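Run log, item B.
One chain of 119 residues. Sequence copied directly from the ordering sheet:
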Amino acid sequence: QVQLVESGGGLVQAGGSLRLSCAASGSAFSINAMGWYRQAPGKARELVAEISSGGSTNYANSVKGRFTSSRDNAKNTVYLQMDSLKSEDTAVYYCNADMVVAGRRQWVWGQGTQVTVSS
């Protein structure tokens, strides 16, 4: 009934920027905290950024100062602005949301979007 869809990934050269979006769709849901994760080939999935329902954020040290997360609650969308991209940022990026769906709390994951940074 509820789906998270990431978009905005692609190929960019080092030093460039990308803006990822994660939009929730469906009915009978509300969103609490949301987060961005990434998984590079051969590596474990790692937390990149978190954003609370009120907009407070936390970032992994590897992206702090370069990435910015924000949300538009009216649009049920969270964003990840990525600047000064490095080749090490290459990964599949996933959106995650702590949601209440049809009266039940659950974690919902998107299917991911590929970000590739060329060096």
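Observations after the first pass:
- The longest strand covers residues 29-39.
- The chain has no helices and eleven strands.
Flagged for discussion on Thursday.
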